[in-house]
Amino acid sequence: MVPGDICSDDVQAIVALSITLALLGILIGVLAALYYKYQQEIKIWMYWNNICPFIFNSDALDANKKYDAFISYSHKDEDFVADTLVPELEFRRKFNLCIHRRDWTVGDFIPDQIIRSVAESRRTIIVLSPNYVESVWGTMEFRTAHHTAIKENVSRVIVIIYGDVNTQNMDPELKSYIDMNTYIKWGDPWFWERLHYALRTIKTGTSKGAGALFKT
Q1: Are 168 and 99 found together in one domain?
Q2: What sequence ranges are listed for the domain TIR (predicted)?
Q3: Is the residue at 100 inside a domain?
Q4: For the whole prediction, is pTM greater than 0.70?
Q5: Do 107 and 49 lie in a common domain?
Q6: Which residues are paired to 204 by β-bridges?
Q7: How many CB atoms lie within 10 A of CB 206?
Q8: Phi, psi of 2 (to 5 degrees)
């Protein structure tokens, strides 16, 4: 068959198919770009609307944990934790939290209590502030949670940036973690939704040190 033998109907069909495929490719490209830009918002929307709930189910991994989260913070930031985080997470959103001042046993060896708090909690929330950067115990709590997450190959650390944090004076391991992983920033309009989502979901097989889910 030579080109002249192709009837006009065949040409029209080929042109129509080519246009359809081109438009489909453009649509897929646009959708992919939108998902890449807004993937966290899309995941949160799916979570709140109970779409594909099996994607977010982590109950089987943490069925025997006593707490939903251990909050690691500097005692200088206790007002923020006690007056803001705890009321919202415990009383309104019904998470069971482990907190120094309430749940630790007076007189017990602090490193042992840190290890126990991390082990008994599904997540560790790091309230990373200028005060936290200067805290020796805060660094120990972060390292314990971080090493546990790496050992289990499970995302368990959630970092909240609270205030203007200077990374130059930060513990090298913590600085490396912040540079490589994601965090939630206090003041973000989606702060509570992001934090709630991070507490309810879990990622396995992470490649960056078992970090949290969001960056702003």
Answers
A1: yes
A2: 65-199
A3: yes
A4: no
A5: no
A6: 154
A7: 17
A8: -100, 160
